[in-house]
């Protein structure tokens, strides 16, 4: 996952080339996903009790880890 900060520090084609040179294939061994720029994650005691929800879009919300694990277990 790559944080979408609106800046041009990330060169997707360069990353894909570097990973290819190390034996990894895009969409087979890995995927690159742009995600919102999350700047704060709090945990533990006495951190307050505020929650911020980030909408990642319908496509991401539809992903079911349970279904993915079942597919992996069954070799799909």
Give a quick summary of the entry.
This protein is of the alpha+beta class and 76 residues long.
What does this structure look like?
The protein is α+β, with helices and mostly antiparallel strands and about 80 residues long. The chain has one domain. The protein has three helices and two strands; from the N terminus they run E-H-E-H-H. It has helices at about 10-20, 60, 65-75, and strands spanning about 1-5, 35. A two-stranded parallel sheet has the order 1-2. The longest helix has 10 residues, at about 10-20. The chain starts with a strand and ends with a helix. The mean pLDDT is about 85.
Please state the overall shape, judged from the principal axes of the Cα atoms.
Answer: extended
pLDDT < 50 stretches: none
Q: Structural class, from helix and strand content?
A: alpha+beta
- Mean pLDDT reading: 84
Number of helices: 3
What is the H/E order? EHEHH
For the record, the count of structural domains works out to: 1
Amino-to-carboxy terminus distance: 23 Å
Q: Main β-sheet, in a few words?
A: 2 strands, parallel
Helix content: 25-40%
Oligomer: single chain
Task: Give the helix/strand layout.
Elements: E1 2-4, H1 12-21, E2 34-36, H2 58-61, H3 65-73
Parallel strand pairs: 1-2
